[in-house]
Amino acid sequence: MRLKAHAKINFSLRVFEPRSDGFHAIESVMQSISLCDYITLTPIASGIEVTCSDPYIPLGRENLVYRAAELLGGGVKIHIEKHIPMAAGLAGGSADAAAVLYGLNAECRMPNAELMKIGAQIGSDVPFCLTGGTCLVTGRGEVVEKQEPWPKSYFVLVCPDVRVATKWAYEEFDRMHLEVSPAIKNDLEPVVVSRHEVITEIKDKLVSLGCSEAQMSGSGPSVFGVVRHKYDAENIYDKIKENYSKLFLVETVDKGVEIINEG
Q1: What Enzyme Commission number(s) appear in the record (predicted)?
Q2: Which CATH number fits the domain 154-251, given the four candidates 3.90.960.10, 2.130.10.10, 2.30.170.40, 3.30.70.890?
Q3: FRET label pair with 218: which of 86, 115, 129, 162, CA 20 to 30 Å apart?
């Protein structure tokens, strides 16, 4: 079986006090986008094997896809064709894990609510990635409410050559006690910008070229500029493609995981 595992962006992200379990409560509007990894699942007699097109991706239990397969009983070889940048605020690892759960559940056929609970054990973004589209996400990420699809939009997505650990971003948010301006839709953005000013530079560049707005996604450092029409997005993309090695022209999609073929 071959599946698409779609990345996500955060249209908004509000971060609240840590909960008793150590996780922060959040409120976020998340959106699936066309940028995706490709996951191939092949049955094997026993165990779990993971391979990946990116040699820097871990292949053992530290990879969320391994943990997903383990929770559903194993007996599978997983190949990841990687396109979503790592540690970029785009939920690449969670999307891959969601695709494995979704694909393996085609045989198990457990109820969606149960699959979502398993997803939440793996990572906070996995329940959203299983649902996909436009969602209001609360709790620590495990409460996902599907919304009306976002109007078709295009995004110029820039991933600067820095990595941001989600754990660090939330710890710094607690330490800095920042008063976040209402004009900033992502509470983690000022925290990450304090270390990586390139994020502000990218935002300013995208807006100056015609994006209606630009902001950081998740815990960063990815930045997306919003464009209503595809030809305008293509024009902006062409103007900056020589400046960034990780640049993508993407659009809204209404699924987090898609089965391409079941062979």
Answers
A1: 2.7.1.148
A2: 3.30.70.890
A3: 115
pLDDT in tens, 86-135: 999 999 999 999 999 999 999 888 999 999 999 999 999 999 999 999 99
Q: Does the active-site annotation cover 204?
A: no
Residue 22 pLDDT > 90 = no
User: 131 with 101: CB under 8 angstroms?
Assistant: no
Asked if pLDDT for residue 179 goes beyond 90, the answer is no
Domain-by-domain residue ranges, the chain?
2-149, 154-251
Please tell me if the domain spanning 2-149 has the same topology as the one spanning 154-251. Answer: no
Q: Is 161 tagged catalytic?
A: no
Which of 37, 96, 125, 187 is an active site residue?
125
